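[job 0412] stage=fold_complex status=start
inputs:
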Amino acid sequence: MQRLINILLIFKEYFVLALLIMLSTVLLSLNDNAQMRAVRSYTVGFIGLAQDYLVTVPNVFELNRENAVLRQLNVNLSDEVSRLRDARLENLRLRGLVGFKEQNPFTLVAADVVGKSYHLLRNTITLNVGLRDSVKIDMPIISESGLVGKIIAAGSRYSIGQLMLNKDFRASAKVQRSRVDGIVSWEGGDVLRMKNVAKMQDVREGDVVTTSEYSNIFPRNIKIGYISKISQGAGTLFKDIEVTPSADLIGLEQVFVIRAVADSERVAMEKNMTRTK
Amino acid sequence: MSRHVKYVFFSIFLLLVQSKMMTLLTLEGITPDLLTIWVVYLALKEGQLIAMPWGFALGLAFDLLTGNFIGLSALTKTVAAFTAGYFYNENKTPLILGSYRFLVIVLTVSLIHNTLYFLIFTQGSEIGTLRAIFQVGLATTFYTATLTLLPMLAFARKYIT
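[job 0412] stage=fold_complex status=done
writing structure:
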């Protein structure tokens, strides 16, 4: 302290000068005339220039604060990226659905799967469309990958769809390559069975199976799946064919109902013929 | 009467003369600066430490009296007192005041004072700084120095003869 006082005493003239200059500067800064405005603008320019050079000198405390802000920003951006990734996937899926709908010759009703009922033998889904949307019993249900099932009950706003993985499900089918006909049904497990295909008929593993024109319910050429296994059943004339569904029947989220009903005249004639026999 | 009280009275007198009556001595818009002569005198007589507050107070009082750029004369008179204080020598004060040295010191201090004054005063105005310093500042310096002849001769008569 004494040393500081000594220094002050040695340089007292300079300290007084500095003090008086500071006082004068304060008084000058109180003026609002053209001169002071010019001086202020020079000062701002000079300080800006000095800051430009000084900004390269790191400030430890400022860096800590900046790091904290950047960490928070990083978390926010990661969260946003995650949400955008989900949105992109959803967008791709919906684009696929829209494209499928535009390419399909049938009149389709888009529906969300709002309920699933996977029992041992009778698996169904609940759709958020019903009679109000012109959805009726026996209308086929498809996805962008292929056949899903058909409507078995319709309410005003909701309907129940019978999946292909249902023991009551039947569909006339055809092997796309060789035009061999058969009946597709389900007997349990993850695969369908194609029945009534004679052992001599040309069927190979990998062949695509579609709906055939013989069906009263399903329009023809809707993809059902592909043949994943063929075995020659012992003591029978028919092949034992396993068909893997092309549609993901377990992970369904959106489907389309085809607004197609069976031709009543054709149904009536076929029923009449059956009775006559 | 303390010499500082005398200084106060004389300062008030000079302030009034400088602010109200010096127009009588104005030539071509150039006015001599009595206050600078007085500040130089105080610095040579009392030294930097005492002269600087006097310079500041005189300058501020002059700014307030004229209502001009408040603080500008306070700053320049402080710097003038500081500069003049470098020539302070308590053993040779009468010799300095009564000789041409006084004239030279006033000339030097007045030049610094006027340069600083016009350097700030011409900022932001259409008057060129260098033109103001060389035309008005130098003329004021020489006019002030010329006027210094009167006290210098008075001091020469008082101290030397």
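[job 0412] summary: Residues 108-262 of chain A form a domain with the Thrombin, subunit H fold (CATH 2.40.10.340).
[job 0412] exit 0
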